[in-house]
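Input (Alpha/beta hydrolase fold domain-containing protein):
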Amino acid sequence: MQLADIISALVPKDGASRRVARGLSYGAGPRRKLDLYRPRHQSDAPLPIIVFFYGGAWNSGSRTHYGFAARALAAMGYLVVVPDYRLVPEIEYPAFLEDCAAAVGWVSDNAASYGGDPVRLVLAGHSAGAYNAACLALDPRWLAPAQRAAVVGVIGLSGPYDFYPFDGPISQRVFGQADDPRQTQPIHHVGPDAAPKLLITGGRDDLVLPRNSVNLSAALERAGVHSSLRLYPRLGHAGTLLCLSLPLRWMAPVLEDCRAFLADVTNPGTGPGDPSAGEYRAAAARQ
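Output:
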């Protein structure tokens, strides 16, 4: 049982949000399903959408383990989608990215039926899921042009973005057979048209080193793309995710970082309850 599974099962849930759909199919097979979460309060206006990809070294994980994270984000006024995707060794790279892209395609086609706004889309994830989110947003191979244009921001928690040459058994197993290994790295797909990024990492992360977030943030800034980097010295690899849970939010203001960024990129200049709304888009415009 993963730590995220224990947290999801035991911690109190955000009462301001709820799961509204479970196990919807976005493709064939048991691993191509997703859950939807939204605020409890009803809104006549379409909600911005967050697609959250979980981590697990591309070889483990389940959408059912991450209800605590989805509810925390949905409670702030968003339709949150948590998809499963096929895992190694059942598949090889890039099949898990193809699944994640298919989930985003389903969201583009169907989220309006659940009160979502498919042209205000944020991709988010933790660890391997942050890699998936960054790849979909940066590398034009995965999303259709209209879907990629709808991505207004990316949130990465403890993500690997710059880890070639592969120096560990996980990366070698997952990516070692790629025809061009450099092209597996999100950092090599940074361009001036990229959406703003919020990159959060922990100083005690010895699984995905903080330099991944630091390097990607620097590459984005060099390309004229606004990037906000948060490095919390006392957090480890899982800490950036667990800070979203109700009992562990005292560890670091990760949820507040997400709140400000999300309000800014989905409602530039008019973010709900955020006096600094417009910071990310305004900074990008000044580049």
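The first helix runs from residue 3 to 10.
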